[in-house]
Amino acid sequence: MSGDGFAAKRRAEAAENAQSASAEPSLIEQLKDQAGSMVGMAGMFVVTILLAMKIQPFYDHDEIRAFGSEGATKAGFILLELVFIFIFTALIIYLARRNMEKFIKWGVLGILWIAMMYTLYPLAAMVLVPEPPALTEDEMDVSEAYIVSVEEGGANFYYVDDPLSGNGTLMYVGNAGEIEYWSHQIIPEDGFVSETVRITHTEDGIVMCEGTRWVLLDAATGEEKEEHPKDCYVGFRQEVTEPEQMPPDWKWESCDGEDNVPQDWTVVDGYLEAIPFHNDGDLGPRDCGDGWQFPSEFDAQNVIFAQEFGSEHFLIVSPKWAGMVQFPTLGQQVGGAQAGEQVETTWNITLSGGETFDAATLGAMPGINASGQDTLLLGTSSGRVLGVDVDQDGSVEERMSMQLAESVRGLLLADCCAGGSNDLWVIEGDHLRIFMGSGLRELTRSLDVGGDASRVPMALHNVDNSQSEIDGALLLMEQNGEWSSMNYEFIPSDNGQFLIYTIPGLIALILSIGMMIALIMRPEWYVINTVGVLVGAGTITMLGVSFVPWIIIIFMVLAAIYDAWAVYKSKHMLELADTMVNLELPVMLVAPQKPTRGRIQMARPETPIDGTPMPPAPRKGMEETMLMGLGDVIFPGLLCISAMSWLPDVEGPLGWSAPVWVAIGTMIGSLVGYCVLMTYVARGKPQAGLPLLNGGAILGYFISGMIFIGSSAFVFNISLF
Questions:
Q1: Which of 282, 356, 345 is CA-nearest to residue 316?
Q2: What local confidence, expressed as pLDDT, does residue 3 receive?
Q3: Cα separation of 210 and 204, whole Å?
Q4: Angle between helices 549-564 and 630-646 (to 10 degrees)
Q5: How many other β-carbons are positioned within 10 Å of the β-carbon of residue 494?
Q6: CA-CA distance, 267 to 213, in Å (whole number)?
Q7: How far is CA 189 from CA 193, 210, 487, 534, 561, in A?
Q8: How many Cα atoms occupy the beta-carbon half-sphere of 222 within 13 Å?
Q9: Are residues 88 and 562 in contact, defined by beta-carbon separation less than 8 angstroms?
């Protein structure tokens, strides 16, 4: 008997048969008599696990796991799950003893409905949404060309061509470089580009810095409008200050803004410095001092993102520090900042240890964004994706956090599949991942990015641009000046993301509600089994992807011990099972021996034999029925899914991966335990199912793991917390 049910034979009119039987039939005879029920139960056992294996890729992502990727090796979390089982069991028994069955029934039905949705949604998506084709790599003959900025949507971007020539050219292009909008020859002050070229967008144009000069370019043509021979790693132009905002006794030119004159700023050597300007031709440029100091963790020479916000703030990101910085307030006179004065921020974040920011992007998050809210996404070397909403007034609010398994090398907000809104493109380690919709559901594609660059800028070919001669779509990736391209096809759909997300969700919702209504109104054996299989598959998958095999094995061993104690010692599991049967709840699988035509429905239990609660008798000629609690299927299934999710992805026989073969071997082992269990069940006694089922599954895992993977199948760095 498992944690939520039991494996037992039910007999119609069992009391009369027990009293009138003159001799006990042999075990062989009993097995033959119940062969139909046993085979049917084994079939449902296998179908439930196979269904879980089918939907496993849909949930095999770190952000979906119950406790994230780090929690997958923590035994304390699985002990917590076991405590929840104890509490749930005690609560059910408590409510049953106080005749509060209504609370039990509707509470359990609600939980089952949620678990069923976890199965129906991916199944509906698999049927309705076409599987996207794999990306195909196409080599590009481009080298020594660095992407410096990619606009939201990915179609337009800036890159520096031939930077090692001494000067280089800033290019503004679209459609994966197919369309050239303008180019600007970089002419550094000392004749050689000393730093990586960086650009920022301002109200007046584009500010370009390459180490030796601050240059303002026309955003439409690329023509040079203004320049300062000032060392500059990153440059800004503060918006014009309105005259009415100035003090009435204003006399001196300032170093942080002036009446009707934009203030130019440079970031260099860890300081934010005002670039002096003057109106009197007889006076030279004024000295604005040392400027305002950034925190020590800020690296001015390795800024990965910078953007002005409104007239008073700018956002800047370096490998260890990011912040929304306020331009120095009006009122500072000539001389600028005081010695050691720090920049003011409305938000900042500092990374600790060896973690660094390696990717950044700004734009509207996936899904419908009617408010026009911009979100800054930051990817780190530890696999985190952090998102904050930013406003023109400089306010910042945390939005989301996603934990991935490997370092985040690239981020892009762009429409992948003609869905009408942005999708999130993430280069995690060596793989490209695409997340769609407000729920960030992953669109699975096959792509190995490769390379060793810590940052991988991405740009897209705009499939809707009539100027393009390229069929389909194109993804560009740049690593250390070398470009590669990937051809891909988007999901053809006139309804875009409505098809991708809304329709499968609606279908799953309608089917799940229909199944629950059928379960309540007509709880026939095939309705109970259908719901049970769907609920079991969803539960297996969600828990199985959350923990490594060793943690699942610990869980299975403890659950088996508890199951045996609850059945043979305390016997409270019999009481729990009887309660669930009385309420006609689908926490079990039903295998009728000889069903007849017509409706067969669970009925209330008959008089117990020797004080042991008897399962309800079937109606209409169903002489015997076998019941198996869902827990007896779920626990072996957990180890199968965990093996698929966490074992090394090496090739196995017949084109299947080795983890899949280990999962199959684990299922076969549990079936061996099931066969042994049936020798006890055939005698008509309630039996703890988990010791034999879990034991067989664990044995199957050990044998198949050693055959298909080797010793690495048993190496996991587990801990308590």
A1: 345
A2: 40
A3: 19
A4: 170
A5: 7
A6: 11
A7: 8, 9, 41, 69, 77
A8: 14
A9: no
φ/ψ of 697, rounded to 5, equals: -65, -45
Residues whose CB falls within 8 Å of the CB of residue 102, separated by 6 or more in sequence, listed in order: none
3-state per-residue secondary structure call for 136-196: EEEECCCCCEEEEEECCCCCEEEEEECHHHCCCEEEEEECCCCEEEEEEECCCCCCCCCCC
d(CA 289, CA 622): 94
What pairs with residue 483 in β-bridges?
478
What per-residue confidence (pLDDT) applies to 400? 86
Q: First and final CA of the chain: distance in angstroms?
A: 30
The packing angle between helices 75-97 and 572-582, to 10°, is: 70
Tokens of 85: 């089982």
pLDDT means per 10 residues, the chain with 721 residues, are 41 44 64 78 93 90 75 86 83 80 82 90 81 64 80 88 74 84 86 77 90 91 88 82 47 49 82 69 55 91 91 93 86 52 92 94 79 86 92 90 87 81 88 80 73 87 48 75 76 47 81 89 85 93 92 92 80 68 71 54 37 40 64 93 89 87 96 88 73 94 93 83 76
pLDDT of the residue at 15? 42
Q: What are the E-state strand segments in 540-593?
A: 588-592
Alpha-carbon distance of 71 to 503, in angstroms, equals 33
Other beta carbons within 10 angstroms of residue 27's beta carbon come to 12
Q: What is the pLDDT of residue 279?
A: 43
CB-CB contact of 211 with 195 (8 Å): yes
- HSE toward the beta carbon, residue 391, CA cutoff 13 A: 9
Q: DSSP letter at 568?
A: I
Q: How far is CA 495 from CA 140, 364, 414, 502, in A?
A: 34, 20, 17, 10
Task: For helices 525-544 and 35-59, give the axis angle rounded to 10 degrees.
Answer: 40
The β-bridge partners of 164 are: none
Is the separation of the CB atoms in 500 and 437 below 8 Å? Answer: yes
Q: What is the pLDDT of residue 337?
A: 58
| Residue 427: burial class (beta carbons within 10 Å; 0-12, 13-18, 19+) | buried
| Count of H-run helices and E-run strands, the chain | 13, 31
d(CA 628, CA 615): 11
Q: Identify the residue whose tokens are 């095939």.
A: 526
The reported pLDDT for the residue numbered 587 is 75
Give, as one character, the DSSP assignment of residue 233: S
Q: Where are the domains of the chain?
A: 8-12+29-129+501-595+627-713, 187-356
Cα separations in angstroms, 470 against 193, 475, 484, 488, 544? 34, 12, 16, 11, 43
pLDDT for res 689: 80
| CA distance linking residue 219 with residue 266, whole number of Å | 19
- Give the integer Cα–Cα distance in Å for 715 and 682: 39
**Are the beta carbons of 219 and 201 closer than 8 angstroms?**
yes
- Residue 638 contacts residue 32 (beta carbons within 8 Å): no
Contact 461, 474 (CB under 8 A): yes
Pick from 646, 639, 656, 597: which is nearest to 622 by CA? 597
Residue 445 tokens read as 């594609």
Please give the backbone phi and psi of residue 25, each rounded to the nearest 5 degrees, phi first.
-65, 160
Task: Return the SS3 of 442.
Answer: strand
Name the amino acid, one letter, at 633. Answer: V
Q: What is the DSSP letter of 342?
A: B
| Whole-angstrom distance, CA of residue 682 vs CA of residue 7 | 10
- pTM score, two decimals? 0.66
Strands 136-139 and 214-217, bridge-based pairing? unpaired
Return d(Cα 322, Cα 314) in angstroms, integer: 11
Which residue, among 294, 295, 274, 293, has the nearest Cα to 285 in the 3D structure? 274
Cβ partners under 8 Å of residue 345, min gap 6: 323, 324, 325, 326
